[in-house]
Write a structure and sequence with these properties.
Distance between the termini: 97 Å
Enzyme class: transferase
CATH superfamily of the largest domain: DD-peptidase/beta-lactamase superfamily
Low-confidence stretches: 1-13, 17-22, 40-44, 672-678
Shape: elongated
EC number: 2.4.-.-
Protein name: Transglycosylase domain-containing protein
GO molecular function: glycosyltransferase activity
Largest sheet: 6 strands, mixed
Radius of gyration: 35 Å
InterPro entries: Beta-lactam/transpept-like, Glyco_trans_51, Glycosyltr_51/Transpeptidase, Lysozyme-like_dom_sf, PBP_transglycosylase, PCN-bd_Tpept
Mean pLDDT: 90
Helix content: 40-55%
CATH topology of the largest domain: Beta-lactamase
CATH architecture of the largest domain: 3-Layer(aba) Sandwich
Strand content: 5-15%
CATH class of the largest domain: Alpha Beta
Length: about 675
Amino acid sequence: MRGAHRDEDDDSRDRPLVALRAATAFAAAGLLLAGLLAPAAVGAGTLLARASANVSSTTAGLLDREPDAASVITDVFGAPMATVYDRYRLPVGPTGVADTMKAAIVAIEDRRFYDHDGIDAQGLTRAAATNAVTGTPFEGQGGSTITMQFVKNQRLYTLADTDEERRTATADTVARKFTEVRLARRVEDQLGKDEILARYLDLVYFGRGAYGVEAAARTWFRTGADALTVPQAALLAGLVRAPSAYDPLDHPAAARARRDQVLDAMTEVGSLTRTQAAAARAAPLGVVSEPIPTPNGCAGARPGTGFFCREVVERLTAAGLDLATGGYTVRTTLDPGATAAARDATRAAVDPEADVADVTAVVAPRPGRRPVLALAANRTYGPDADAGQTVLPLTTAPLRGAGSIYKIFTAAAALERGLVSPGTTLDVPEEYRSELAEGYTVENLGSYPDELTLRQALATSPNTTFVALVDRIGSVPPIVDVARRLGLRTTLAAPGPDGRPLAERVGAEQASFTLGPDPTSPLDLANVAATISSGGRWCPPTLVEAVTDRDAREVTPAIAPCEQAVDPAVARELRTALSEDVEDGTASRAADDAGWDRTMIAKTGTTQRSASAAFLGATDRYAGAVMTFSTDGAEPVCTSPVSTCSEGDLTGGSVPADTWFDLMGPLHRSGADRDDEG
């Protein structure tokens, strides 16, 4: 008892000291508040003066610089197929957020938000006093208004470019608080309350990689911010203060308690009736079992669209658009029907787990434009090689040779010069020594008649005939030139081991160019077919219909204009010369098996040792190319089953042609073409 009495005496003696400390703290808090609001009037001190030095220059950034935002890539119909971001943030602005969410965040974070001018003097005094008495941080003491929190987060996520700037933006110091107060007042002078609230909700972090309320709604509930229910909004509002501590999967009890605290606050301020709040408290947390952001980048694209996505990102990045931060909406030319058919055909032809790639590109030969409808492969685009994925641009980059398809370019050059016509009879020697390339001799594979027309020669592909035709042309550069004009542009611009592009490396006497040993882009080949079938008019293969920024302004990069690659009369002759391959040539077996009965142009190609093979074809609706090749160097490829082997039997008329007809047959039968789109 004596001990207890002694404690009471101690308490009595301490009470004046505690009271004095508290009074001093509140007085100090009052002075601090006055210093924060009007530092010059009360002599706030050198520290605060220094902190205010950059306020004016920072204000413009707060209002003018937008936070980073994810870009969404869609197919031609506007259906999302990929999202690209540094941070998963999808700004939606004032009209994109449900009133439930606005009410919840105001109730729990700043219930006087619509009444103050950016500074809650009552809350700031209380926070300063608590800091003065206990030494606890300002954070969590209720001193920051939503406007001040917007300032803090905007400085952290948008304005800070260095680690030091990020530390300054989050430091628990009087100087930082002072800066936020001054900046908040300026923000309130220039923005309305609804705009400030919307910017804040688009900015803050809600856990699990979700920045901003739209990303949070999608991540936690698979819904939009404009559709959040009361309990969903209350849970998200509760997460803002401590996303990890209130994570509903890791800490469900804490998350529920925090959500209910938000519901109580909403009831206190009149946003909810007690009945509505009780119903919301009875609701389950309702979050998804795996709350992860939308997969990032082309590796997370919709199945079958990864290679297309990669090329879109590469092109737009080269045009100066930063998709990872810019918040763009990119509507592409990708046709989901054509893409599904292409993916199914390549996978049916070659096992995705085989060490052989089967890739295809499909374009539409429309007047004045050349939309790319599909870029697909039997492989999946992605970084996991053990799972059969690859990040190589299989459908667009020049990786392997296309073989005798290059005879098209020799024929075109000869037609331009009037040396031949489709019906011109050409010699077919068993062996031919080039006059142009000294010491270069070629032989044919298989037996041929002594003579063939140009049309028959393109269909059956004797090597000697076309090397001899190179000699008649007199030089290889004219053949290279017509190849470029018809569409072999990425291929010819690709640098070789010495850094020079293929167009420069092909010498005037390199007669072997006509046999197509050089790495070739599948998309280039598809566009060559489209150029020929479009009257000789080349157009750049286009993957993007439109790009809009976050304010819905169109920012689509300009593309090169179409060109008349060859005279229309030459194009007509070339179409005629390429019309027999599916009738009585190297692709006739594949065409017969597919029951093909449409008029088309076609050409097959096979490189030495069957390391790669290709098929090019076009109708009036679609142009496409298929290439099949070893993914492990230049190993020969066998076809039963399709795999690398020691002695290959792959030809352009086998797997590539089968894939092409398997792809194009359903497209033509289903009427899936988009000619009516212009």
